[in-house]
Structure formats: C-alpha cells, structure tokens
## 1
Amino acid sequence: MVNVRGRVVRFALRRWVALVLVVLVAVFIGQNRDRVSIDLFWAHLKAPLWFVLLITAIVGVIIGWLTNRRRAQRAAGHRAAGSGHASPDSPRRAQ
C-alpha cells in the first residue's frame, strides 16, 4: 500500500521550501543593484549585479529542470523494463 499522506506532506514541504528559496533569491537580487564588470572568455561587459544574479538563477533553474526531467525519464525506463530492483516494501526474493 502506498502511503498517500506521506507523499502529500513531502510534496507540500518541497513546494514551501521552493517558495522560500525563490523569495530569498528575489530579495538578494533586489538588494544587489550595483554595476559589475563581467569577464567570460573573450567577452568583457558591465551589467547591473541584479541582472547577473537573475541570469544565474535562471540558468540554475534550467539545469535543475533538465536534470530532474532526465531522472524522471530514467526512473520511468526502469519501471517499464522491470529493473529487477526490489522496492523497500516488497519481500526479498531468495537467491
């Protein structure tokens, strides 16, 4: 039997943690408005720090989304192929 309440609690906790982190990032970005010099390989430019932080946060979200999507696809592939791994709830097979 699947523990539905535990899943709901984990889901809600993950959403609250994500919301708190988004608020912290927004406040951090809002408080850092100085202009900074950026040197990346051959590119040299000046930009507001809030813009650099925002771009960095967006890149982080994209990387997290891509890795989570890949993990979900891998898990779906294991389930479809019957990966042979026993779940913690299932009885062990004698070897």
## 2
Amino acid sequence: MDSQTTTPLDSTSQTAGSNQRVFSKPIRWWNSKTSWKQLGMAGVFVGPWIIGLLAFTIYPIYYTVRLSFTRYAGFGEMEWIGLGNYRRMLGNDPIFWQSLWNTFYYTGLAVPIGAVMAMVIALAMNQNLPEIPLYRVILYLPSVLPLFALSFIVWALLDPNQGIVNEALRAIGLSPPNWFGDPSYAKLGIVILAQFGAGQIALVFLAGLKGIPQTLHEAAMIDGAGVLSRFKNITLPLMTPVILYDIILGISLGLQAFVQSFIITDGGPAKSTTFIVNHLYDNAFRFGQMGYASAIGVALFVITFVIAIAVFQTSHRWVHYDLS
C-alpha cells in the first residue's frame, strides 16, 4: 500500500516534469507571425543589397566565365569553343605572358614600396605638433586627385626635356633617363606614380598607430629603449595586421593596374608597360574578341585569389595581434 501512495513532493515532481516536457517542445518559426514580420523587415533592408549582389557581382561573374568558353565579338551569336581560349592564352599568346610579367614586376615593387611610404607618412602624421592638421592635409591631398589627373601630373614631372625631376638630376651632374620612353625605366615610372596615392592608406596606418597603447611606449622608455628599439619591438609588431590589410589591398589593385599605363604610354614602349588588364582591354574593345578577353579576366581572378590565399596562409608567421 505504501508503494502506491503518492506524496505531495512526488506529485509536484511529476507536474514539473510534465510541464518541462510541454515547454521543451520546439516552436516552428514558420508558425510564428512575429518571425514572419521580422523576416519581412529584414528583407526590406537586406533586399536591395541582395539584388545588387546578384545583378552586379554574381551574374557578371557567371556571364564572364560563360563567355570565356566561346568565340564572341560582342555582336551576333556566340560560338562555343570549349577550352580554346585558354589553350590560346597559355600556349599561343606571348603578349599574355609578357603582360603577366609586367604586372608582377609592377605589383612586386609598388606594393612594398607603398607600404613603406604609407608607414613613413603615418609616422609623420602622428607627431604631436601644432601644425600637424595642415601637414596631414598636404600629405593626403595627392591621393584625392583622380588617377587620370595624377597620371598627367607625374607625366609632366618626369618629362625627359622639361620635367622637374630630370632638371634636378641634371643639376647634380646625373644623366636623366627617358622615364616613359625607355623600356628599362617605363615600369619604374609607373611605380613612382603609384606612390603619390600613399596618403590614402597612410590614414589607415595612422588609425593603427593611434590604437597602440601609449603605456607600452612609456614602459619601454623607462627601461631605456630608444626610438628605433620601440619602433622595432612595439610599433611594427602591432602594426602587422594593418600591413597585412595593405598588402592584400595593394596586390588586388596592383594586379588590376590599367589607367596609368593606358594614359601615359598606352602599353609601350615595346609592350614594357602592357599590363594584363591592358591586354584584356585591347582584346575586348580593339580586336573585338570578347570571349578571349573573358578568359584573360577569369585567369586574372584565379591568380588574384591564389595569391591572396597564399598571403593569408603565411600571415600567421609574421602577423601579431598582441605582444605575447
């Protein structure tokens, strides 16, 4: 009889257990009016971005890949040729390989030099001086100019006959080069032009410098560390995430270099400044070979993606997010 008797405590436990089983039953979100309202509100804000992503990113990528397998002049019917454009690009187009080398040469010089220039400018902007706002405007101003206008300015500065740079070289007894007329110097001239935009990334570097705790520098100064020691052991390690960002962005922009070469040299002299985007442009709009130009664009995308992944995969060896 005792075994069949239910105490108040047992009754309460059974009730709690049954309630727990009732409330643990999952509620389907599609059966909730509140969830549908929230989804609709999210769609109002996210919808324009999704439409833009599909219309201006996803579909152009799909269409470019599709064109790369065809022979198409921009008008008329597409002729499916499979991998013909890629076989031509890799085996029968020496200009493609030359333009690829020119692009790597330019990017390999412009990106690290630009990072050093941006760091120097950011350090100058970070000084505690009354006139520093004016200096920041002056250092940042060249990066505000449109690239085509900046190209004309640098073209005038490096003019072999009347350019200020060559006049200065003559004044100190050096023989000035023909910057954009000599294949040996043409790419260097484009690299010099790229450094006029260092003020833009210098603002990002300045933000990184402002984020370094001043107490670290003060503690190092108490220990007797000099300026160079503090820069090497505190500033530079904590700036490596910003430097990584600059390298990824610089590689992406460097591999897409076009406007400078198109305006100043039009790919010359002797194809020495024909970058891969110049070659793409020539095939698409001068020779009417949209299919082949699309294949070059796909190759450029793959190259950029592979290099970016390689940089990210090796970044753990030199990027520091703290001083530990």
